[in-house]
Amino acid sequence: MSRPLLGCIADDFTGGTDLASMLVKGGMRTIQTIGIPQRRLTGTDAIVVALKTRTMPAAQAVRESLDALRWLRQEGCRQFYFKYCSTFDSTPRGNIGPVLDALMRELDTRFTIACPALPENGRTVYKGHLFVGDELLSESGMRNHPLTPMTDANLVRLLAPQTAHRVALVDHGVVAKGHEAIRAAFDRCRQGDARIAIVDAIDNDDLHRIGAAAADMPLLSGGSGLALGLPENFRRAGLLAASTRAARPRARPGRMVLLSGSCSVATNVQLERWLRHRPGLKIDPLALHRGEDVVAGAVAWVLGHDEPVLVYASARPDEVARVQAELGAGPAGLLVEAALSSIAARLRQAGFDKFVVAGGETSGAVVKALEVTGLRIGEPITPGVPWTQSIDAAPLSLALKSGNFGTADFFAEAMRQCP
Questions:
Q1: Sites in the chain below the pLDDT cut of 50
Q2: pLDDT digits 0-9 by tens, 274-296
Q3: Taking a C-beta distance cutoff of 8 angstroms, is the pair 162, 94 a contact?
Q4: Any residues with CB less than 8 A from the CB of 237 and at least 6 apart, and which?
Q5: CB environment 366-383: b (16+ within 10 A), e (fewer)
Q6: What confidence score (pLDDT) does residue 244 get?
Q7: Are 339 and 295 a contacting pair, CB within 8 Å?
Q8: Sign, CA torsion 120/126/128/130
Q9: Alpha-carbon distance 363 to 389, whole Å?
Q10: pLDDT tens for residues 6-19?
């Protein structure tokens, strides 16, 4: 029985799907699990364990990440990957640094890298600074994120307070020289007192060079872009077949609903585009707080339409701020997640089996409510967002979208491409 080559730990559900999509693109058969499975997985080259650790207390995030790592080691994985968002967001005291430190200790490795770059979605790192399109991270829409506002674009400065180790930088001047120069820079970091290096990347060629330089490293960390260079490492070592054809979920009839809890700039644009021509129903967090039966009303509204419709709690930053001022950021988010996941569960009971979900926290809540244990990853709708099919007895089709991903027409495109 073949064993998986790459074991990945993602700090949220859409991030896990994004990473899995990259690996499929490189020809690796990939399964994404929702939490730690209770059974062995066969017939896969990579496993992505999707957790919900991005915004939880750091100590809990460390415990859950270590549990995932230990399970992946038992499965026989050869290399490990800690995946976080391409906008490097987490709680102010972590959780990227504390989790990285814990994974390094568990694997007994003295050095790793951090590279959140995802150029095809506009995330680049230059001189250690993270850009979103042409803007510094701190000047992008992420500065207003309701849970993880990002107000500093300097990744060395961001990561340093989160970790017990010194953080170095391998800048683009080194990366552009190729994988041997990058590997030599890693060796210099190891010989010094730096244990983690931020690595610049401004295009996919850079990511392939970095991946080649990191072929022998036990632990890598980054956004999904860094995974572009990893399949070829296994292929060169004779461990991975040459085929690069992605899995394609089986087409079947069914009913679809679209759910959005993301308040990102990208999702708000996508929402506006959808509402120009198609129905949408807005969930009011204050009504949920007052105890109104918003869920039942939303389910009835969806059932009253023959076409796919969108139920959303997405809002502009000023509206989010007003709600958070009254309810608090954490409670407001939990109310929305609970409502949208309850709507999804009731619609599944009513026969719906195709779900498009926008927002990492929302996706995590929805897949748990739907009792999904794992996903087979198909071809992308847009970079980083594939259609997937659950591995459970009664399969569901799901597209789980990070709030920041996708073009303005994402929702319509997801509906068009649904298997």
A1: none
A2: 999 999 999 999 999 999 999 99
A3: yes
A4: 215
A5: bbbbbebbbbbbbbbbbb
A6: 56
A7: yes
A8: negative
A9: 14
A10: 999 999 888 898 89
Q: Which two tokens stand for residue 67?
A: 């549990």
Which amino acid is it at 243? S
Dihedral, 224, 150, 339, 355 alpha carbons, nearest 10: -20
Domains of the chain in start order, with CATH, are 6-236 (3.40.50.10840), 255-417 (3.40.980.20)
Instruction: Write the DSSP assignment of 21-35 as a string of letters.
Output: HHHHHTT--EEEEES
- As beta bridge partners, residue 166 has 194
Dihedral pair phi/psi, residue 131, rounded to 5°: -110, 145
The verdict on whether omega for the bond into residue 233 sits within 30 degrees of 0, i.e. cis, is: no
- The 10 Å CB-count burial string (b at 16+, else e) for 339-351 is bbbbbbbbbbeee
User: What is the distance, to the nearest Å, from the Cα of residue 1 to the centroid of all Cα atoms in its chain?
Assistant: 29
Cα separation, 340 vs 387, in Å, equals 20
Q: Give the pLDDT of residue 260.
A: 96
Q: Which residue has the tokens 């999804």?
A: 344
The Cα–Cα gap between 254 and 261 comes to: 23
Half-sphere exposure of 252 toward its Cβ, with a 13 Å CA cutoff? 12
Parallel, antiparallel, or unpaired for β 129-132 and 123-126?
antiparallel
Q: Can you give the pLDDT at residue 378?
A: 85
**Structure-derived torsion over alpha carbons of residues 324, 327, 333, 337, reported in degrees to the nearest 10:** -140
> Sign of dihedral through CA atoms 364, 15, 78, 58?
negative
pTM for this prediction: 0.82
Cβ count near 218 (within 10 Å): 17
- The encoded tokens of residue 165 equal 């180790």
Owner of token pair 């995932």 = 68
Q: Which residues of 172-195 are buried (b: 16+ CB within 10 A; e: fewer)?
A: bebbeeebebbbebbeebeeeebb
